[in-house]
């Protein structure tokens, strides 16, 4: 059976809610970091709030590019229109990210519960540490795959590979290392796209009172560029 044609294109502002619903379906409640970073992402109110945050990110970051995987319409079949089946966010990171949660999010608004907020603060500090170290050690920029989600009904059709390859090709042109903090489920895809594990299991040391909470299971992976030339721009 021939695979459907998948194309990669920029995400428009109006498509952000669709992308967030894909994020929810893709991760379900199987990714602890997503669950705490996007509270109640499986509810209507959580999806509205999450979509608003993604849109603010898209509009406010000149370094980040939101791209979608589109399954093109197959005439004569059930699907009448082109369909977004996945999306990714790639960031040309020119300096280490802040490890202070309040620098990147309206923490009290997103996590109104004080303990949830404190837990997220600790996770965020640990989460950004490896990518910050990579940027400092290399004394260079990195291209970071910050988010990747493919709707479960359309996985293994080439959408994930297309979204990852879009960014790694940009990294190759720039002569930059690509970085991703991947879930165990996503790891095989990243390995097929040339990434190698540098930290098999990222450490999340949090306060003792949070020891019983689910913690992220992530592997820190990098990919060396295939070419070492090109203008310093990602889009």
Automatic annotation (TrEMBL):
Bilayer-crossing regions: none
SUPFAM superfamilies: Acyl-CoA N-acyltransferases (Nat) (SSF55729)
GO MF assignments: acyltransferase activity, transferring groups other than amino-acyl groups
Domain N-acetyltransferase, chain residue ranges per copy: 88-217
Protein name according to UniProt: N-acetyltransferase domain-containing protein
Source organism per UniProt: Lophiostoma macrostomum CBS 122681
